[in-house]
Amino acid sequence: MLSIIYLILVPLIFGLLIILFKNKWSSGIALAGSAINLFLFFFMLSQYNGGLRIENQFSIPWIPELNVDLHFGLDALGIFMILLSSLILPVGILASIKYSKFRRKSYYVLMMIGLTSLIGFFSAQNDLTFYVFFELALIPFYFMVLMYGGSDRKRALFKFFLYTVFGSFLMLASIIYFRSLINIGATSDWSILYGVELNLKSQTWIMLGLLIAFAIKSPLFPFHTWQADLYSEGDRPAIIIIAAVLSKMGVFGILRFFNIFENAILQYQTPLIVLSIIGIIYAALIAWRQSSMTRLLAYSSLSHMGMIAAGIFSASVSGLQGSLFQMLSHGLVIAGLFMVVDSIMSRTNNSSIYGSSGIATSQPRLATYFFILCLGSVGLPLTSGFIGEFDILLGLSSINWILALVAGTSIILSAIYIFRFYQKSMFGDNHPENKSWTAITLNEEYVLIILSILVIILGFFPASWLELADQATSTFVQLKSKIQ
After folding, report:
1. What is the dihedral of CA 300, 306, 309, 311, to 10 degrees?
2. Closest by Cα among 58, 132, 48, 125 to 83
3. pLDDT (mean) for 337-351
């Protein structure tokens, strides 16, 4: 059985190859590395047996005094996000190829380091390994935006930096506090940590610190003010990855630590859900009024992250399953939408939703892919977005049907701002300059075809992934009962 360490090391090896070869080969080497990594993951996935087992493990001693190893492994929870990372990194690389002559090889080295960090984060099997890769995953994308972002990127990055440093401090403090309360004589992987009994007060303090850190990372309301600026000013291929994958790190973190502060979540469940729903509605209303494509998608993403968080805080089987499934679905949809935006902005040099009006007649294939992704974003039945949102709302209804009803209004709001976006950018009067549009490239078309197909396939055939989500989320309760 292959070890997970191969998935972590392959991108690093290809990063070294990029350094050794000429700049013109950088994008091709990076794409080859990400493709090999994806096929290697599919091979591991084909041999995955499911259940409570952690497979393809790799562990080396790290801090013996604390019984902490650098420990990685493949489990049901991590599979969703490792799959998303392995799919989206090639998308980001393909999106960057049209700019490759303006990118130094360091750009693609950072891409490979980013892939390594993300896989390490989602496969981490204890809290300290999780924290290290939580921080490492930020660094390469920070420098990519710094080097190739927009004219106001430094201000956007400074705000982002202040938020993340504060969140990182809280996360580390929470982990140190948690470690000070426990006495573990053996190597502490998640199965051991989940079995630790803490009183409600201790759980509450740990939850508070971690939730703020995770809310900043995703982001979640009200720790979101860095997001729209970064998405507008960032390097667009990097933003595809940030919006699709890095934005899921926070809500994924809540799931990873869920069983450690489970009682605290149940104690403050209603306020947490209400806060999430406020974020859902607030972001949807702001998105409705946006004329900038990047800012519209930033607030759309904020609204969807709020829905995922509400599902997690419902602490119900369907809510947890729906949140995990929706993390995968939203990652695919938002990556496709940002790919469409990149295709438009690279040709019009205009971020306004009105700047490309009328191009549906000359670019019908782009308009078709865009429409499918819009359907997935609003959660139309038989698309992937419907499955996750339905389960989340079902989970919320088991807590309070009024909360579920209010959260469900976001589907209507989402349809309003997404289809307004589609109508204004694809139809209407054709700008004279849009008549000289070049057709979408093969790289762009391959990406949009694959993402559109995945959105439809997951909508038609979600059963196996929902079963995997059931294994992942039921693990919280099963591990605690098993250890006790």
Report:
1. -90
2. 48
3. 89
